Amino acid sequence: MKILRYGGNGQVEVIEADKISIGELKDSWLDLTGDLPENLFGIKFEKIILNEDEYSQIEDGPDYTLVKIGYVGRENHHKTIYAMLTEDAIITTHKEECTPINRFIKNMKAIVKDEKENIKRFNDFVIAQIFYQIENENMNAVSNIGDSLETLRKKGTSVNLEDIDKARGDIRTFSRTILYQSIIVSEMKRGEGEFINKGNLYEYCVDVENELVKYSKLVTGLEKELNGIIESLETRELSEYTRQTARLNIAIEILTRASVLLMIPNSIFTLWPSIFRPDDLVFGMRNFYLELLVATVSIIISQIAMSSVYKKIKTV
User: Fold this and answer.
1) Beta carbons of 61 and 40 less than 8 angstroms apart
2) 39 plus 147 within the same structural domain
3) Are residues 272 and 225 part of one domain?
4) Do both 199 and 183 map to the same domain?
5) Which residue, 260, 257, 261, 259, is CA-closest to 297?
């Protein structure tokens, strides 16, 4: 295991050990990943995954405070981080890598350097930084949501349900993150937890609370915008459907009229010869020429009628 120990001189010492007692963790932060032990430093705790309706739990023991923080991990799976705070140290345990914690570890040396005069407030500082990193993750989520919505706007009627579900999923994840963070801040301000109710966190809580209010409004706005896009798409599709239906009706009208009109020359060439012979005079004109004239005029009239109806399609 690796232990990050604050030396009090602006430096962070990394200690690797197979075993360590809880007393040796003074002014240190231990972050454990992978399979978690049921009994850690003599502290027994029930490992659970907080469900969608529980975003944080705080349990007070005689020698420690256990904070369980639920978050949404990869592929929208719910995960839980366990943070145990003793009088002088913090221990975080989680099943898989968590971006806020890893980022904090990477920047620990530079961050703790600014806190060299506040060794006794080490726990408060660490937990506050974790919350700060989670808040940064929220802003990344906002950016992702913004990209998703912009993609939907640009796609117009070609958007599919997967695009909409992705944007809605991002918004839900973001809103859940806000909710469990706001619950933790609320618990801290009310004094829940012996070691996390510290005076120097009060101003931080106030600042975060104000940000949470803004974020909550942003979530509502994003949901409304997404619903607006969906309604717009549905309206466009309905309008397009209506237009296509109108065109279909006109096309049927063309076929109906054309079939009737084209029956005239067809009947002339098939039935007329059985009534009159080609050399017979009809109205003073040889039957053959009269037959040809009537058929030609009928075809011209049918074409004019079809052209007139077709123009209606182009205006729909």
Assistant:
1) no
2) yes
3) no
4) yes
5) 261
In this structure, what token pair is assigned to residue 142?
């906002």
Q: What are phi and psi of 106, to 5 degrees?
A: -60, -30
3-class DSSP state of 140: helix
Name the DSSP class of 137.
H
Q: What is the pLDDT of residue 81?
A: 74
**Into how many domains does the chain fold?**
2
Range 121-125 average pLDDT:
56
| 90 Rama sector, left if φ>0, alpha if ψ -120 to 50, beta otherwise | beta
Please state, as a whole number, how many other Cβ atoms lie within 10 Å of the Cβ of residue 5. 18
- Same domain, yes or no, for 143 and 272? no
pLDDT of residue 168: 72
User: What is the DSSP secondary-structure string of 294-309?
Assistant: HHHHHHHHHHHHHHHH
Q: Which of 54, 137, 121 is nearest to 89 (CA)?
A: 121
**pLDDT tens, residue by residue, 174-223:** 666 666 666 666 665 555 444 444 454 556 566 666 666 776 776 677 67
- SS3 at position 191: coil
First to last CA, the chain: 73
The DSSP output letter for 50 is: -
Say whether 17 sits in a helix, a strand or coil.
Answer: coil
User: Rounded to an integer, what distance in angstroms lies between the CA atom of residue 22 and that of residue 91?
Assistant: 10
Q: Can you tell me the distance from the alpha carbon of 273 to that of 267, in angstroms, rounded to the nearest whole number?
A: 10
Per residue in 98-111, pLDDT (tens digit) is 665 665 555 554 54
pTM of the shown model: 0.44
- The DSSP output letter for 8 is S
**Same domain membership, residue 226 and residue 250:** no
- Residue 270's domain comprises 242-315
For the chain, what is the radius of gyration of the CA atoms?
Answer: 38
